[in-house]
Amino acid sequence: MGKLPPIPTVILPPGPAFRDDVDLGPIGLGDVMGGTGIELVRKLISCVEAAEDVMKHARKDDGSVRLPKTLMQASEHMRRTLETTAKLHESMVSLQKLDRYMEAMFAELKAEAPEVAQRVLARLREVNGRYRAGASSKN
What we know:
Blueprint: E1 11-12, E2 27-28, H1 29-32, H2 37-57, H3 68-112, H4 114-138
Antiparallel strand pairs: 1-2
C-alpha cells in the first residue's frame, strides 16, 4: 500500500446553546481525544493495510492458500483491529450524544438564567482544565 493521505483536523463550532453570549471557541477532535485522535486513526488504518498486505502475500495468485498460519495470524490481527475500530466508533458516538445532551441542558439553563449559564460554564472550564492537567501529568 502507498503512503497514507493526511487526515484534516476537524474543528467543531460551539453548539447552539453557546452562540450568543457564551463563547466556547472552536473544539478540535484532538480536544475530545486528548490530542491523539488523528494519530490513532492513522495507526488503525496502517494496521488494516498491513493485515491486508500479509493476507495477500499468504495467498497464491489463484487465491489458494500458500501460508495458512500466516493467513490466520493476519486475519486475527485484522479482526482485533476492526474490533478496536468499532469500540472507538462507539465511544465517539457516545461523546456526540453527551454533547447534544449538554447543549440542550445549557440551552434550557441559558433561557432561564443566562448569567448563571455563563458562571456554570466558566466553572466547568476550570474543572476541565484541572482534569486535563492531571491527565497529562500521568502520561
